[in-house]
Amino acid sequence: MTLKSERIKIGNGIYLNLIRTDKFKSNLLSYYFLRPLSKEEVTKNALLPLVLKRGTAEYDTNLKIQRKLEETYGASLSIAINKRGEKHVLRFTVETVNGDYVGDGDYIYEVINLLKSIIYNPALEKGYFRRDYVEQEKENLRHKIEGRINDKRSYALDRCIEEMCRNEKFSIFPLGNIDDLENIDEGILYKHYQNVINTSPIEIFYVGEYDEKLIEYIKNIEKVERDSVITIPREQIISGIQTKNMVHEDLDVTQGKLVLGYRTGIPYEDRLYNGLIVASDILGGGPNSKLFRNVREKESLAYYITSTIYKYKSIMLIDGGIEFNNFEKTIDIVKEQLEEMKHGNFTDEDIEVSKKSIKSSTESIRDSIFLISEYFFSQILSEDSRSLEEILRDIDSVSREEITEAMSKVVLDTIYFMKNSKA
């Protein structure tokens, strides 16, 4: 069955996206609020969903919300705060069993009402958020920010991006800054909440089975009067580099974390973008990749090594876990393999294996109701109207020349190395 999204404007800057599928025993409703990724509001944005999920006017504690979810056939609620390029995205999602399986077609309206209440009708005290909820969630967010260093691989990737994009919004950590938390109270956060509700572009996604009655219900409950909706600009894409960065960070680790940051200068709208995706996979996409074969298998220099394209910012990161004294040799071999790619020194089998891997990963979206929602949301962010089938065909049609041309544009910008000088 071909997956298609129907997009309906239901308010100023508010769109409802409908994806019909009967593959799952559940339905999914997601709200995505888009904000600019900025130092001024990143911490407030990150704190906001944490406070909202604590309680509504009707269900004023998280325990009451959880009980209501249980009553509605074990519906599940999730929130997320992340960045897509230089956009900050606040997501609220509820997934619940299809009414046909429980003989109750109307209970889904209760679930929709609950999600709406969490977003639009929060628990208040003296006209603002409850102070105790704000203070408790500030502490929870503090622990999350402090805990980012516990996953050393993820932390190394973040640190490379922060150094590489130091003067760009993409460097901002999506959970915010500990220093900002001190200046946020229930009044400040509530005023920010009102601004988010009134000015953010909002994308609503419903995935599953539905009828006109359900769609009208979602549309009519969304009639919020909004005067001005912000416009979030396209990310700035840098193709050249001014100066190369070399960053060494000393931490208490037993394994070095090496990250090489490259500018590609190929935006996702470019004809070469699919060539870049295939090229990155041939270079470092898996156990058949050139980096895996040469850095890990042949030279035994890395515990892992991969290459990843960051779509919205058009950068490529190669990261590996290595012994501290293998730093220079690993970089030399990575550079050699990149040059091999630029000169077309890879086989037709390499191309086919990578295309098959990319297509398999893309097709697996169909197997997850959540990934279907995420996929179509990413299509909106990139203003890409292609169907899943068209994307698969475009990957299939990538030529050897496009792969080498895409790789010829890739330039090294930043080297980040996490080491332990005491080891």
Report what the structure shows.
The strands form three sheets. The chain has a six-stranded mixed beta sheet, sandwiched between helices. Strands 9-13-10-12-11 form a five-stranded mixed beta sheet, with helices on both faces. The model has no long low-confidence stretch (mean pLDDT 93). Helix 11 packs antiparallel against helix 12 (327-342) and helix 13 (348-363) runs antiparallel to helix 15. With 423 residues, it is an alpha+beta fold. It is 43% helix and 23% strand.
Class from secondary-structure proportions: alpha+beta
Main sheet makeup: 6 strands, mixed
Order of helices and strands: EEEHHEEHHEEHHHHEHEEHHEEHHHHHE
How far is the N terminus from the C terminus? 56 Å
Strand runs, count:
13
Overall shape:
globular
Oligomer: single chain
Portion in strands: 15-25%
Strand ordering within the main sheet:
1-2-8-3-5-4
Brief summary of the model shown:
The protein has 423 residues and is of the alpha+beta class.
Descriptive key words:
423 residues; single chain; alpha+beta; 13 strands; 43% helix; 6-stranded mixed beta sheet; 5-stranded mixed beta sheet; 16 helices; globular
Helix/strand layout:
Blueprint: E1 5-11, E2 14-20, E3 26-36, H1 42-52, H2 62-71, E4 76-84, E5 87-97, H3 99-102, H4 107-120, E6 124-125, E7 128-129, H5 131-146, H6 152-164, H7 178-181, H8 186-199, E8 202-208, H9 212-221, E9 245-250, E10 256-263, H10 273-284, H11 290-298, E11 302-310, E12 315-322, H12 327-342, H13 348-363, H14 369-381, H15 388-396, H16 400-408, E13 411-419
Parallel strand pairs: 2-8, 9-13
Antiparallel strand pairs: 1-2, 3-5, 3-8, 4-5, 6-7, 10-12, 10-13, 11-12
Helix pairs in contact: 1-5, 1-8, 10-13, 10-16, 11-12, 13-15
